[in-house]
Amino acid sequence: VPTYNPTEIERKWQEKWEADGLYHADIDYSRPKHYALTMLPYPSGDLHIGHWYAMTPSDARARFMRMQGYNVLFPMGFDAFGLPAENAAIKHNIHPKEWTYRNIERMRKQLKSMGAMFDWRREAISSDPEYYRWTQWFFVQFYKNGLAYRKGGMVDWCPSCNTTLAREQVVGEDRVCERCGTPVIKKNLEQWFFRLTKYAEELLSFEGIDWPERVRTLQINWIGRSEGAAVTFRTEQGDPIEVFTTRPDTLWGATFMVLAPEHPLVEKVTTLEQKAAVEAYIYQALRQSDIQREAADREKTGVFTGGYAINPVNGERIPIWIADYVLMSYGTGAIMAVPAHDERDFAFARKYGLRIIPVIQPEGMVLDGDTMEQAYTGPGYMINSGPLNGTYVNGKGHNDPGIRKVIEYLEAHGLGRAEVSYKLRDWLISRQRYWGAPIPIIYCPKCGTVPVPEDQLPVLLPDDVEWRPTGESPLKLHPTWRFTTCPTCGGPAERETDTMDTFMCSSWYHLRYLSPHYDQWPFDPREYDYWMPVDTYTGGIEHATMHLIYTRFFHKACRDIGITKGNEPMLQLRNQGMVLGEDSEKMSKSRGNVIAPDDLVARYGADTVRAYLMFFARWDQGGPWNSGGIEGVHRWLRRVWSVILEPVNEQNQADEATLRQLRRKVHQTLRSVTRDFREFEFNTIVSSLMELLNEMSKAKQNGAWGSMAWDEAVDIYLRMLAPVCPHISEEIWALLGKPYSIHAQAWPQVDEEAAKEEMITIVVQINGKVRDRLTVNAEISDEEVKALALQSEVVQRYLGGKPPQQIIYVPRRLVSIVV
Ligand code: ANZ
Ligand code: ZN
Predict the structure, then answer these.
(1) Which ligand is nearest to the CA of 487?
(2) Is 800 a member of any domain?
(3) Cα 765 to the chain's mean position, in Å?
(4) Which terminus in the chain has less CB density within 10 A, N or C?
(5) Model confidence pLDDT, tens digit, residues 151-181
(6) Are residue 348 and residue 386 in the same domain, yes or no?
(7) Looking at ligand 1, which atom is closest to the CA of residue 245?
(8) Which tens digit of pLDDT belongs to each residue from 387-419?
């Protein structure tokens, strides 16, 4: 018997599988399809253990589905545009394109070392012109269908580097520029947006898809739906100020208004005396992030504008303030402040000595605005509220007949209307960056904004640019690139010089895999009709909001345009946890606790790494790496090799019971492993296989080798092992002379008869006479048998409520009781 040499056999089989096109997935109408998708990597340099953790169990699952008779598509590609390429390029003085494609070469090789069933013919790279041509095409479709628009928007801006920053480039509590440490400010820039909010309501529904509770909750919170009312106040000059409130029942208690510092009316309502204070306040407010501004425990600050508004329900003259706890990005950017019933407004009113008037009266308690110590936010009856006095409200805002009555009143008097508000914002896709897909828009002095005609796509990204930061969009600085002619009038015109957010590229990559070189359309409709939707999508929980919301939006928008079908792109989603360092800390270079998969593969082979990653923790939870653990898994694979391949010297015949027991264990394991694969319970798959190997080893010692039961055990064992460890299973399969390839074999069927627990009959004697019989599972413990015997009706009758004098158990045969 040859020795187990993982390096050698893994290389050998990977080459053969590739040469044979074993994992090519083609349309086959005779078989049910299964589209298994795992999140594609960003080509950052090296494949890390997190990639292995996401991908290899996903691969095992895809292989299992294939053995279950599905025609499985399991593609791979690269999310290749993005900021890190530019940063690395600046650091190492290498062109972002060169850096990216070098990394792709390297990572493709590393990916191949996994022995996964990727169909490499379908590889898609989002920075290839044949890919981003279609990213741009989607942009044009969105534009033509009113889903893309341009408007001024607040962005993070470094006043020293003179450039916009991506969210990740703003660092630290005090929000400074990652590059130069200068405090970041907000700036208003003309930007392109996608109308994500149009789908806010639909995105809240997960009907027909099986996504984890956690992801659904994260998305629902991200979308942030609130029911309430829009109410229009007016300034003393007569300008309308609309507010969104979840508590229109407290309208009579609105004693001041607060505008976000960025609110367009601020300038107009501010009086001359207050101007300097207001401007100083605005300057500091623009430096905070929305998250900081919203923090509940933050000291509330603000400034009086000097202006007044009129409360529309009671005609009261109320002061208008600005405060940074009111966000411009939510509701209308203005609020009616009700200090008696809102905690933030209360804190603000106390601090600045503003009036507090209770308008909700709790049962059995009288609120006094002068002495209250906190806002009252519970249920009660409306008071000080004119015509609506006495209306009961639940204090929560939504689902309240009281609130409904208030809104009816507002609507009837033309003061307001029912309104739903969402935290979700439209998707800002403009980036003043080089390494991305150019936004395919031309600005013509005569014709205005003109999309690049589809037959002129892609708008190619030039190579000869200054990508180092200069404060301008690199494409804007190019001497010629932006100058073009208008597609409509032929006159001189200029291109948009911003590129697209790379989340745009990753919103549709699952479609490009279907036909990565197709040049008539983003995908071949035949392939779409066969493969879509994605059946199983696997990847990290960190994508719960951005990517996984964008891709759902993208699909729905395309559905409405007539490009895609169905309501959802991905039917089932599963997230893996995280592999931590041996010290239970997050792996990071600075902690020095990083585990490099390449080293492990060189040392143990890919099969061991795959099996260990499935074994060491629940996949959806992850956990700390353990060097001893991977050693143990490696030893197990060596034992698989020897138990199955090494012949026994002396051949004594196994008895019936041994063989029956072997078959029972095999089919029981098959049953649980099948279920575990379905449920993504990879850790118990590996432990079940370890247990079964022990059983097989015992049976082998007891003479099972060479029997039909033994051959069946080996056959089923290898098939079950194949998705987890594709190389060693293929090698042993071949050494046993079985037909190539194990990965083209069917998943075995459970023999329910064989899997049945063995039942035995135990005689129960009372005072030496047989009185009863128990039929029990043969694996039952002594204590359990004795307890069962004592519970028997007959025994109970003889005992008559007293304890037995003596109870003796002769294993597997009889229980003798003396009463
Ligand atoms: C008056 C009121 C009285 C409010 C009361 C609450 C309680 P959610 O649930 O998050 O939707 N609000 C509205 N727009 C805001 C903005 N741009 N920035 C900060 N706060 C804003 O909360 C909606 C409530 O948050 C609204 O209802 C408004 O305050 C405030 F006893 O209006 B409420
Ligand atoms: Zn024109």
Answers:
(1) 2
(2) yes
(3) 62
(4) N
(5) 986 778 887 766 677 665 777 777 888 778 8
(6) yes
(7) 27
(8) 999 999 998 877 899 999 999 999 999 999 999
Distance 805 CA to ligand 1 centre (A): 75
Q: Whose CA is nearest to atom 2 of ligand 1?
A: 247
Residues 338 and 374 in one domain: yes
Model-level ipTM above the cut of 0.90: yes
CA dihedral 540, 541, 547, 552 (to 10 degrees): 110
- Asked if 96 contacts 475 with a C-beta cutoff of 8 angstroms, the reply is no
Pocket test for ligand 1, best of 243, 262, 342 (most atoms within 8 A of CB): 342
Q: How far apart are CA 333 and CA 770, in angstroms?
A: 87
Ligand nearest, relative to CA of residue 446: 2
Q: Which atom of ligand 1 is nearest to the CA of 328?
A: 17
Q: Could you tell me if 55 and 104 are in contact, meaning their C-beta atoms sit under 8 angstroms apart?
A: no
CA gap 309, 312 in Å, rounded: 9
The predicted-structure confidence for 282-328, as pLDDT tens digits, reads as follows: 988 887 777 677 776 778 899 999 999 999 999 999 999 999 999 98
Residue 134 lies in a domain: no
Same domain, 172 and 256: no
Distances (CA, A) of 331 to 226, 354, 553: 10, 24, 21
Atom of ligand 1 nearest to the CA of 248: 1
pLDDT digits (tens, 9 = 90+) for 519-565: 999 999 999 999 999 999 999 998 988 899 999 999 999 999 999 99
pLDDT of residue 812: 87
Give the whole-angstrom CA distance, residue 244 versus residue 335: 7
Claim to verify: residue 169 and residue 287 sit in the same structural domain: no
Q: Of 720, 755, 790, which one is at a domain's C-terminal end? A: 755
Residues in the chain: 819
Give the ligand at the shortest distance from the Cα of 485. 2
Q: How far is the CA of 614 from the centre of ligand 2 (A)?
A: 59
Q: Of all protein residues, whose CA lies closest to atom 22 belonging to ligand 1?
A: 246
Alpha-carbon torsion, ordered 273, 276, 281, 284, to 10 deg: 180
* Distance from residue 427's CA to the centre of ligand 2 (Å): 28
Mark which of 422, 438, 460 sits at the end of a domain.
422
Distance in angstroms (rounded) separating the CA atoms of residues 353 and 338: 14
- In testing the pocket of ligand 1, which one of 330, 332, 361, 367 has its CB within 8 Å of the most ligand atoms? 330
Mutate to test the pocket of ligand 1, among 335, 336, 345 (most ligand atoms within 8 A of CB): 335
Enumerate residues lining ligand 1, CB below 6 A: 226, 244-247, 250, 325-327, 330-331, 333, 335-336, 338, 341-342, 421
CATH of the domain at 245: 3.90.740.10
Q: Which of 368, 361, 294 is nearest to 324 (CA)?
A: 294
What is the domain-level CATH number for residue 659? 1.10.730.10
What are the structure tokens assigned to 414, written together? Answer: 């033309």
Judge if 744 and 775 occupy the same domain.
no
CATH number assigned to the domain comprising residue 773: 3.10.20.590
Residues 776 and 803 placed together within one structural domain of the fold: yes
In a domain, 140, yes or no: no
For residue 421, the ligand 1 atom closest to its alpha carbon is 11
Q: Which ligand is nearest to the CA of 348?
A: 1
Bond before 597 cis per omega within 30 degrees: no
User: What's the domain count of the chain?
Assistant: 4
* Count of Cβ atoms closer than 10 Å to residue 70 Cβ: 18
Residues 694 and 807 in one domain: no
In a domain, 481, yes or no: no
CA of 382 to the centre of ligand 1 (A): 19
Q: Answer yes or no: is 589 a known binding residue.
A: yes
Decide the pairing of beta strands 430-431 and 534-540: unpaired
Q: How far is the CA of 230 from the centre of ligand 1 (A)?
A: 11
Query: Residue 712: in which H helix or E strand, if any?
Result: helix 708-721
Domain that holds residue 776: 759-818
